Amino acid sequence: MSGGVTVRVPAKVNVQLAVGAARPDGFHDLANVFLAVSLYDEVTVTPSDRFYLTCSGPYADQVPLDTTNLAARAAQALASRHGIDPAVHIHIAKDIPVAGGMAGGSADGAAALLACDALWSVGSSRTELLDICAELGSDVPFSLVGGAALGLGRGEKLTELEVGGTGFHWVFATADGGLSTPAVFREFDRLTPEAPTPEASPLLLEALRTGDAEALAASLVRSNDLQPAALSLRPSLTETLEAGVSAGALAGLVSGSGPTTAFLVADAGAAEKVAAALVASGTCRTARVATGPVVGARVI
Ligand code: ATP
Are residues 43 and 176 in the same domain? Predict the structure, then answer.
């Protein structure tokens, strides 16, 4: 598109999601280990005579095109901070599953922010961008940063993590219909009345640091505190997890609040094999292969 700015932004998987008890403000303290993976949305902003949003791709019909869209909220937040008229057309080329626990909405928020900052020549510092991201949502700062990071607080207080080796290979099995993140947290509260203080697992951080897939797989067992709640709301995900592991995945877990399931595999060949077996099992809608960590939102 002429005169526009396009930003490519990755999805994420939580290799650990430790959840504490609900706080008085309703949020939960988290110890959240994020890994950005190579499934991408592309967000293009173009000058226009009015503000509007469009979306294309396999999940487009599930994406709201009003001011509740995180991309719209990001553009408007930046515009109002700097007294800019936000007359832009935002187009989202969506390839990240919607409501799948892969932070697709957050990714689009971070991407739109970066794209508008470039289009309007605002020149925000990294800290200013991260502040706006944190106001937009707990997962938005990580979508900007990418790579691997530990998120504390609601998940928005980020420390970047070093990852060794050449990265990890993943398969993501998408499910029909989403799961609402607030509903999964409510189910967590019901199932876990006395949640302990969430802490990152030293073994898991070490597995990331050394790039050791077998060690990471061992650390993924029960690393997602939301998994029992997601399985309680969507029992059929148990069959998807079993299908992936019996096809040779090193480990399987629910991605974030689900219903996407994530499988760590040994290499690219194993990823293709596990993806084919998952599709053949009939326990998921599609299976996508990806690698991670990858960089966060970038102008392309
Ligand atoms: P998370 O992993 O951060 O909990 P998620 O992957 O489960 O998120 P999203 O794909 O971000 O979920 O979508 C959750 C809801 O957010 C959607 O059902 C939709 O109504 C709304 N939403 C707002 N903006 C977007 C967007 N740009 N793309 C997709 N959904 C959006």
Answer: no
- Inter-helix orientation angle 104-119/126-136, to 10°: 140
Radius of gyration in angstroms for the set of CA atoms belonging to the chain, rounded to a whole number: 19
pTM over the 0.90 mark: yes
CATH label of the domain that carries residue 15: 3.30.230.10
Q: Residue 139 catalytic?
A: yes
CB environment 238-247: b (16+ within 10 A), e (fewer): eebbebbeeb
Q: 88-93 and 52-56: which strand pairing?
A: parallel
For 67-110, write each residue's pLDDT tens digit.
999 999 999 999 999 999 999 999 999 999 988 889 999 999 99
Is the distance from CB of 189 to CB of 226 less than 8 angstroms?
no
Torsion (CA) 156, 63, 118, 36 in degrees, nearest 10: 50
| 299 occurs within a structural domain | no
Determine whether 273 is an active site residue.
Answer: no
Candidate from 53, 94, 113, 181 with most ligand 1 atoms within 8 A of CB, to mutate: 181
Helices marked H in the chain — which ranges? 70-82, 104-119, 126-136, 140-145, 181-191, 202-210, 213-220, 227-233, 237-246, 268-281
> Tens digits of per-residue pLDDT, 152-198?
988 888 999 999 999 999 999 999 888 999 999 999 999 998 999 99
Is the predicted pLDDT of residue 1 greater than 60, yes or no?
no
CB distance 70 to ligand 1 below 6 Å: yes
Which CATH number belongs to the domain containing residue 210 in this structure?
3.30.70.890
Give every CB contact of residue 73 below 8 A, 6+ residues apart in sequence.
67, 109, 136
- Ligand 1 close to Cβ of residue 271 (< 6 A): no
Tokens of 57: 């791709």
Give me the pLDDT at residue 100, please.
86
